[in-house]
Automatic annotation (TrEMBL):
Family matches, as InterPro entries: GH, GH10, GH10_dom
E.C. code: 3.2.1.8
Classification via Pfam families: Glyco_hydro_10
Protein's recorded name: Beta-xylanase
Subcellular location: Secreted
Record has Hydrolase as a keyword: yes
Catalytic activity: Endohydrolysis of (1->4)-beta-D-xylosidic linkages in xylans
GO biological process assignments: xylan catabolic process
UniProt entry keywords in alphabetical sequence: Carbohydrate metabolism, Glycosidase, Hydrolase, Polysaccharide degradation, Secreted, Xylan degradation
Name of the gene this protein is made from: XYL5
Gene3D superfamilies associated with the record: Glycosidases
Organism annotation: Staphylotrichum longicolle
A cellular component annotation (GO) from this entry: extracellular region
Length: 358
């Protein structure tokens, strides 16, 4: 376990980049991932959650710990098929339950998602559209959903996964009807619906695929060039053990976007094992990969926080989507903290001093 202790120490020692702003974090037994990120100058450490988790008392005890998690993303209940299953008929029951729980516990809500090619109701995915009629449907959906949650969401993922791996636009009903114009359209409608919410473009493999990151840069410039508000880019960070870029590489990629004047965040972080069962070496490598991701956010001033896509393997999406892989989360199915959790959390074991900006 010497390597694990090394990872714990390395997480914050590498964050020292100057002497302008010194922060002291003391060993306080009640601290958790969120409170420590806040102490480091970040806004939050969060997790995905949804109503399927409400009856699990062990899960709730951890997720409602304000030191552990300060931000929640509804995993599925705010997606189009859930909120508008039939045209003009809106349903917010499930998402409202998440929002109410988060509010009652004094935590933040990160809302997800509005314009996405997947999990669409059939009236959208199989409809026959013109530019005018699809524009009206997008406008009505975004306006109704965002107005319902106005002033409740720190941020919205306005457009989700619009890119292929080579950086070109992904085929969708939106692209085939409106071309790339559907992207600035979505952001424009969102800005009008809730001017206070941060508006994000969100996608996967931006961390690992340079051509796709190029495409995301082009999307930011497309929206900005249209004179429309875009506040951030979400890096989903669905990573693979042993294939995660280095901390410096990840920070450099984040920096490409903050240089455009937008903030960044890791929005769906998990690190899956490509095969099971795992060895001790596999688990230590997973710890190193989590440290690289969280550490890179600490290293970039414009990175506001990290959200994991569930904190326990009990509710991970990975095994159902990629059979034979898994154990991607910070805790086991039985809520035992893994080496990955301990490596990320471990900076609290002693007093540390580091710089969080230039």
């Amino acid at each position: 376990m010497e390597r694990l202790s090394y990872l714990r120490a390395r997480l914050f020692r590498e964050a020292v980049v100057g002497d302008e702003t010194l922060i002291i974090v003391e060993d306080k037994g009640g601290e958790g991932l969120h409170s420590l990120m806040v102490a480091a100058g970040k806004l939050y450490f969060g997790t995905a959650m949804d109503t399927k988790n409400f009856n699990d008392t062990a899960y709730q005890a951890i997720s409602t710990n304000q030191n552990e998690f300060g931000m929640f993303t509804p995993e599925n209940s705010q997606k189009w098929d859930a909120t508008e299953p039939q045209q003009g008929q809106f349903s917010f029951t499930q998402a409202d339950a998440v929002a109410m729980k988060v509010k009652s516990n004094g935590q933040l809500l990160r809302c997800h998602t509005l314009t996405w090619h997947s999990q669409l109701p059939s009236f959208v995915s199989t409809g026959t559209w013109t530019r005018e009629t699809l524009t009206a449907v997008i406008t009505a959906h975004i306006t109704n959903v965002m107005t319902h949650y106005a002033a409740q969401c720190y941020a919205w993922d306005v457009v989700n996964e619009a890119l292929n791996e080579n950086g070109t636009f992904r085929s969708s009903v939106f692209l085939s009807t409106l071309g790339p114009d559907y992207i600035p359209l979505s952001f424009s409608v969102a800005a009008a619906a809730d001017p206070r919410a941060k508006l994000y473009y969100n996608d996967f493999n931006l961390e690992t695929t340079p051509a796709k990151a190029d495409g995301a840069v082009a999307i930011v410039k497309l929206v900005q060039g249209a004179g429309v508000k875009i506040d951030g880019v979400g890096f989903q960070a669905h990573l693979n053990v042993g294939q995660t870029p280095s901390r410096a590489q990840l920070a450099a990629t984040l920096g490409r976007f903050t240089a455009l004047g937008v903030e960044v965040a890791y929005t769906e972080l998990d690190v899956k094992h490509p095969k099971l069962p795992t060895s001790e070496a596999d688990r230590e490598q997973q710890a190193a990969d989590y440290v690289a991701a969280v550490g890179s956010c600490l290293d970039v001033e414009g990175c506001v926080g990290v959200t994991v896509w569930q904190f326990t393997d009990r509710y991970s999406w990975v095994p159902g989507t990629f059979p034979g892989t898994g154990e991607a989360c910070l805790m086991t199915e039985d809520y035992v903290k893994k080496p990955a959790y301990e490596a990320v959390e471990g900076w609290r074991e002693q007093q540390h001093r580091w710089t969080v900006g230039n």
